[in-house]
Amino acid sequence: MTTSSWSSFAKYFELLSSPGRPSADDIAFVRNQLLSLNKPINGILLGVTKELAKLASEEINITAVDNSLEMIKHQWIGNSSNRTVILDDWLNLPSQFTSVDFVIGDGVFTVLDRKSSHLLMECVRAVLSDDGIFIVRLFCSPEMRESFEHIYHNTTNNLNAFEWRLAQSMCDSNFEVCMKNFLDRFKQVISASDIEHFGWTKEQLSTIEPYANSPCTLTFMTETVFKELCKEHGMEIINRFTGSYELSERCPTFVLRKA
Ligand SMILES: C[S@@+](CC[C@H](N)C(=O)[O-])C[C@H]1O[C@@H](n2cnc3c(N)ncnc32)[C@H](O)[C@@H]1O
């Protein structure tokens, strides 16, 4: 996704809930993993996810990196003695950081195309210390594509879960889906009476309007493909956690370190 598409998204972010945002148990897992490093630690937050930024403390020093001024303006919870934000691209991390204890991120591979996913994994590996960890929540496609009928018949009032499932069912062979095509399909398959039936509010529906005319893509790798990506870049999975919200089974948090 481009910085301009994040600009149009920034003001709608408040309205998202899990799976789009990490839940309290996802965050507790990240905190425990960081504290298990057992020392004052310094690291990087990819983006400005406020639930993760709030983990900053005497023991946990966080520098957030985001390339959207609008997202920083609307979403950053503020600098403090152990938390700061810089405007930069994740793919520039190695020019700014070295030997950090951790990198954390939420859904970061979904906002990158496949090529950039490889570049990000390389950049994270390059900035981590030898015993540093990369903790990332992934939005995964199921290994078997779902039919629209199956998705529709299992739809609840969690709009974000429906969105993810519909988008995942439309992914191409690169696991990418164009946001504009997603919104067109949504409008084609969902009627006003569906919206009423599922109890989706106007406010919630406004969160997908920035997709209109967007040429940007979202990427939903399967877990198998993510594991291959890790292996290819010399990263070993040492832990995995799933929270307890709808679709959490497709949103695992992985802890990685250099193999
Ligand atoms: C971390 S991602 C996904 C959102 C996440 N699920 C949440 O709840 O916060 C969103 C953020 O990443 C930022 N972003 C996307 N691509 C980026 C890149 N290549 N470099 C730096 N920031 C990027 C966007 O500006 C946005 O603030």
List the helices and strands and how they pair.
Elements: H1 3-9, H2 24-35, E1 41-46, H3 50-53, E2 60-66, H4 69-75, E3 83-87, H5 93-96, E4 100-106, H6 114-127, E5 128-137, H7 148-153, H8 159-169, E6 176-178, H9 179-189, H10 192-198, H11 202-205, E7 217-219, H12 223-232, E8 235-241, E9 253-258
What would you say about this model in short?
The chain has 259 residues and is an alpha/beta fold. The chain folds into two domains: 3-140 and 221-258, 3-Layer(aba) Sandwich (Rossmann fold), CATH 3.40.50.150; 148-219, no CATH class. It has twelve helices and nine strands.
Describe this entry's structure for a reader:
The protein is an alpha/beta fold and 259 residues long. It has 2 domains: 3-140 and 221-258, Rossmann fold (3-Layer(aba) Sandwich), CATH 3.40.50; 148-219, no CATH class. 37% of the residues lie in helices and 21% in strands. The chain has a 7-stranded mixed sheet with strand order 3-2-1-4-5-9-8, with helices on both faces. Helix 4 links the parallel strand 2 (60-66) and strand 3 (83-87). The radius of gyration is 18 Å and the shape is globular. The two termini are 30 Å apart. The model has no long low-confidence stretch (mean pLDDT 94). S-adenosylmethionine binds next to strand 2 and strand 4. It comes from Adineta ricciae. This is Methyltransferase type 11 domain-containing protein.
